[in-house]
């Protein structure tokens, strides 16, 4: 059963060249460049590397082989696990790490960049891979920072892997938050009317159909009428004043004017009776009229 790398106690190991496990690992790795291209036993490399780490410690070359094997077996997740192990041993045990030669270390890390970079670029990534991509990016950032602080005369190109994961993460983030395209405004199509045609008078059959063209209906294209413009506030105010004037005029003509005419006629009648009663002759004859009425009764 495979032991997870996070359960390993990371400690730097010495030269593993004389160990059988390391020799078997190198034999499998050498198959990559063999002309006949035999199949590489990646599970065996993974298992032997873990055995070597437990018994002897972690060296730079074995850690690189282990990372490549994990990537071949588990893709992005396997590369991330191996890369985190590699970053841990490089950051904490760089001065004691085997091999000690700066040039050999640079060559090993360049080989790691080439092999892993070619395989990683063949994968198709989705938004579900972002969490694992962030982990790999962080581990590679630790490796790059440690290399920049080292005494290597020529820095390996591990930063190419870091840039690859950074660009991949940006692309996936953009596709995840890409806004939906705005809906296009709906435009009414023009209305098409077919005008009715009068039936053409029948012509005698000449037996020759050459030059005969059947009558075609005329096509008229009419665009929809634009909607009426809404009435402005000033126009509405003026229309209200005009309607109010009409209402007041009708009320005055239909109600107040007849009352005024009746009141004027009543006033004229009262004045006429008053004039009659106040005449001198009528006043003088009034007592005699009363006596005449009394005698009659």
From TrEMBL:
Residues 12-113 form the ImpA N-terminal domain. Keywords: Membrane, Transmembrane, Transmembrane helix. The keyword Metal-binding does not apply. The chain crosses the membrane at residues 236-256. PANTHER family: IMPA N-TERMINAL DOMAIN-CONTAINING PROTEIN, TYPE VI SECRETION SYSTEM DUF2094 AND IMPA-RELATED DOMAIN PROTEIN. This is Photorhabdus luminescens subsp. laumondii TTO1 complete genome segment 2/17. Residues 197-217 are annotated as: Disordered. InterPro entries: ImpA_N (IPR010657).
């Amino acid at each position: 059963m495979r032991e997870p790398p996070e359960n390993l106690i990371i400690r730097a190991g010495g030269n593993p060249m004389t160990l059988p496990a390391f020799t078997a690992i190198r034999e499998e790795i050498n198959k990559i460049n063999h002309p006949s291209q035999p199949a590489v036993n990646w599970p065996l490399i993974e298992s032997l590397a873990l055995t070597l780490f437990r018994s002897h410690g972690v060296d730079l070359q074995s850690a690189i082989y282990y990372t490549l094997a994990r990537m071949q077996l588990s893709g992005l997740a396997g590369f991330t696990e191996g890369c985190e192990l590699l970053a841990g041993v490089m950051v904490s045990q760089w001065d004691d790490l085997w091999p000690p030669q700066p040039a050999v270390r640079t060559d090993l890390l360049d080989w790691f960049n080439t092999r892993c970079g070619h395989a990683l670029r063949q994968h198709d990534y989705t938004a579900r891979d972002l969490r694992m991509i962030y982990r790999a990016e962080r581990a590679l950032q630790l490796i790059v920072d440690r290399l920049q602080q080292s005494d290597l005369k020529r820095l390996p190109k591990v930063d190419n892997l870091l840039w690859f994961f950074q660009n991949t993460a940006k692309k996936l983030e953009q596709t995840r938050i890409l806004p939906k395209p705005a809906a296009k405004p709906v435009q009414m199509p023009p209305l098409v009317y077919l005008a009715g045609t009068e039936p053409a008078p029948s012509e005698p059959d000449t037996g020759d159909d050459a030059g005969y063209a059947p009558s075609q209906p005329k096509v008229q294209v009419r665009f929809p009428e634009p909607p009426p413009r809404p009435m402005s506030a000033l126009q509405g105010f003026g229309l209200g004043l005009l309607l109010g004037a009409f209402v007041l005029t009708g009320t005055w003509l239909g109600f107040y004017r007849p009352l005024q005419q009746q009141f004027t006629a009543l006033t004229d009648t009262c004045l006429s009776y008053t004039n009659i009663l106040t005449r001198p002759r009528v006043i003088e004859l009034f007592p005699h009229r009363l006596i005449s009425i009394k005698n009659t009764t």
